[in-house]
Each structure stands twice: as C-alpha cells, then as structure tokens.
Amino acid sequence: MKDYVIKRLLLFIPTLIIITMITFLVCRLAPGDPTEMKIGQTGEAQKTDAKNLMNEQAKEFYKKKFGLDKPLPTQYVLWMGNMLQGDFGNSFKDNRPVIEKIIERLPITVTISLLSFTLIYLIAIPIGIYSAARQYSVIDRTTTVILFVLYSLPSFWVATLAIVFLCNVEYLKIFPTAGIKSEDFQSLTSFGKFQDLFMHFFLPVVISSLASFAFLSRQMRSSMLEVIRQDYIRTARAKGLSERKVVLKHALRNSLIPIITLVGGLLPAMIGGSVIMETIFSIPGIGQLAFQAILDRDYPMIMAELVLASVLTVVGILLVDILYSFVDPRIAFTKKAA
C-alpha cells in the first residue's frame, strides 16, 4: 500500500504538468482580451483618434503589467514557476492576490458541498439498500419513479422555481432569496444565528443534492442486487441467518465498491457543481468567483481555479484507490510473488 501511494504521488507530477499546460493554452487561446475589460472598452468603435490612441496606450500598459506581451511559452514558464512557489499571481480585475480571494471564499463552498454530500449519502444509500432488499415491491416501484423524476429535473430550473415560489412575498416567503446570512446576523442570539444560517443554506444544499441523490440511490440498488444474487449470500441464508444480517453484514460491504468509485468525483464537484447554485442564490463562494472570472477574462483566477479542480480530481482518484483496500482487503495494488 505504501509503495502504491508513493508511485501514485510521483505520477501526480507529470499529470499536473500536462493539466497546467492544457489549462494555460485553453485560457490564452479563448476569445476576448482582458486589457479591454480592464480599460472598460466595449466592442463599439471609438469616435476620435485621441481616444483610440489613449486606449491603445492603456492596452499596451496593461499587457506589459500582466505579462501578456511575452511569448506564450515564456508566459507559461513564469506562471508555472510562480505557482510552484504558491503564488498564483494577482487578479486582473482588482489586483488582489488570487490565492487570497480563493481562501476567502473556499470555506463557504466547502461547507455547502460537505452538507450536500452528507445528505446524499445518508439518504441515498439506505434507500438503495431497502429497494434492493424489497425488489419490485410497492415501495421499490414508488421510489424508482420518484428518483427518476428527481434525476431528470435540471438543478437551475428547480432553483429558479424555488426562488419564485418559496422566497417571494407574492407566494410563500419561507426562505431568504440570496446570500449566506442576514444583515442583522451579528445582533442575533446563538440560536438565531444557527436558524439564520440554516434558512440560507437549506435550499442550495437540498437542490444541489437532488440529481446526485437520485443517481447514487439507483447505483446502490443495482450494486446491492448484483451482490445478493451471489452464491455466498445464498449460503448465508441457508445457514439460517436473518435477512437483516445477510444484507447489512455480508452484502453491504461488497456492494459499496461502485459507490466508493463515485467518491472520486465529489472533490472536484465542490468547484464545478457550485457554479450554478452560487450564481443563482448569490452565494459568495468559489463557484460564483469562477463564473465572474470567466466573464472578466481574469486569466490568473481562471487558471488557479482550474488547477485547483484538477488537483482535487487527482486526489479524489487516489483517495478512492486507498478506500478500496479498506472495503475489500482482497484488492492488491502490487503484483504478488509467484
């Protein structure tokens, strides 16, 4: 196990280099000019030569300041060297350090993501187990229909409907419309602060969990059905063990392997999946920051967030491989001697 982890960590280095190269090229070759965004120039033609000259001079100034006047290979080497030192550069938008802006917003996105993942696994796995143990029962058929409906609903559409009908005084003003806390948050009691945070986080957490919740429960059901048809499960039942013990002790552990595989996608989903919810509910997290960076052509911010998502993807895959050995000790990461 130790040798395997070391090899994977060493493999992480060339993987990261390739990811950074692709990220850099995608950002640099994308249409749009960040210097135009910086000087506030629109796509309309300027009416006077003086204004044209001033704009060109301003663009040249910002290109030199941001290092955009250098060849692409030079830009990549400089950016990579700074990144290895923990310096992702300064934002083109407000000249603040990129890492500072990410650290400032990361806790909010992590909190929403962890709450969503906890809700997904706490509800989806038991439903999947129960549906598999009661295959073709009324409850199984009912949950199947409900889960397929939930899986087919676009999260942005559900979020928009929730804002219209659950956050609107014209219908039901139950939840706040935007943000993560009220303006008078500091003046509230401890219980009042908890209630205020709960009301702000409830809709983003639940809505972002719907599709994954439906998908994971169906995966759990399919995996459990495959396992309980195995010979050793029939042997356990023939020994007189209760159905509860057969399912939870013998079948559950082996059926978790496909579910663990899905864990690898949870870490990068903290960034990728947060864009929609944070934009719709105006939550100041990483997702909203990434969306705004794309609109502003903020190259340092975009590249930093793409690299962060890539690193989380590689770490998630490594975590999955390690968890495999705990769920099923028969899984070996090294070739056994003959």
Explain what the structure shows.
The protein has two domains: 83 residues, no CATH class; 230 residues, Orthogonal Bundle (MetI-like fold). It has 15 helices and no strands. It is mainly alpha-helical and 338 residues long. About 2% of the residues have low confidence. The relative contact order is 0.13. Helix content is 74%, strand content 0%. Helix 8 crosses helix 10 and helix 12 packs antiparallel against helix 15.
What's the number of domains?
2
CATH homologous superfamily heading of the largest domain = MetI-like
- Which topology of the largest domain does CATH recognise? MetI-like fold
Total DSSP E strands: 0
CATH top level label of the largest domain: Mainly Alpha
Tally the helices. 15
**Which CATH architecture of the largest domain?**
Orthogonal Bundle
Mean pLDDT: 79
Largest sheet: none
SSE ordering? HHHHHHHHHHHHHHH
The stretches of 5 or more residues where confidence is low (pLDDT under 50) are 41-47
Estimated structural class: mainly alpha
* N- to C-terminal distance: 19 Å
Attribute tags:
about 350 residues; mainly alpha; MetI-like fold; 2 domains; about 75% helix
Topology:
Elements: H1 2-29, H2 34-39, H3 49-66, H4 72-84, H5 98-133, H6 138-152, H7 155-166, H8 190-228, H9 231-238, H10 243-255, H11 257-263, H12 266-272, H13 274-280, H14 286-296, H15 299-327
Helix pairs in contact: 1-15, 5-6, 5-8, 5-12, 6-8, 7-8, 8-10, 8-11, 11-15, 12-15, 13-14, 14-15
